[in-house]
Amino acid sequence: MSIRHGLLALLERGPRYGSRLRTEFESRTGSTWPLNVGQVYTTLSRLERDGMVVQDGADDAGHDLYAITDAGRTELHTWFGTPVDRTHPPRDELAIKLAMAVGAPGVDIREVIQSQRRHTLKAMQDYTRLKAQALADVPSDRDEVAWLLVVEQLIFQAEAEARWLDHCESRLVRLAEAAATEPSAGPGPVATRGPARAPAERSRSQR
After folding, report:
1. How far apart are CA 41 and CA 26, in angstroms?
2. Which of 6, 17, 59, 171 has the smallest C-beta neighbourhood within 10 Å, fewest atoms?
3. Alpha-carbon gap, residue 179 to 165, rounded angstroms
C-alpha cells in the first residue's frame, strides 16, 4: 500500500497537519488500512526530504501544516497514470500456508481449506452488509464514494478467494483419486538395454 501517494493525494486538496491526514486517509478508505500518527509523520519527513512536500506554517491551533510541491504533484499524477505492477505480487500468507501444508506430516490440508473457506465467506458477508449500509443512502460526498469502491473491492477479493479454495479442494480430490487408481510401483530389476530373456533361456545359457 502506498501511504506516501495517499498522503500526497490528500495534500493536493490543501495544506494539512499529520493527525488530519490520518483521519482523512482512514475516512476515505473506511479504516480498512488504519494508520498511526507515527507512520504519517515518518512518511511526511521522507516526502519533505525528497522535495515533494514542504512545511507551510501552522494553523490557529498551532499544528504544523504540510503542503505539496510541484515535484509532489508530478509524482502523484505519475502514480495515478501508472498501472499497479502485478508481475511481482506480494507474498500471500494463504497461498504459502497451503503450499506448505501439502504433504506436511499430521496436517489435514482439506480441513485447512475448509476452515479458511468458512472465515472467507464470513468476511464476505460482513463486507456485503457494509456495502448495503453504504448504499442505504446514495453516497453524497467523495469519502463515501471512495469507501464504497474499497468495500466492493474487498467483496470481489473474498469471492475470488472462495472460488480458489473450492478449486484447491477439487484439485486435491482429483489427484488423490488418480493416485489411488495407479498400480503400486514395487521394487523391480534395473532396466537394461535389449529384450529381457526368459528364466529358462537364462538357465540354458549358463550350462
Report:
1. 15
2. 171
3. 21
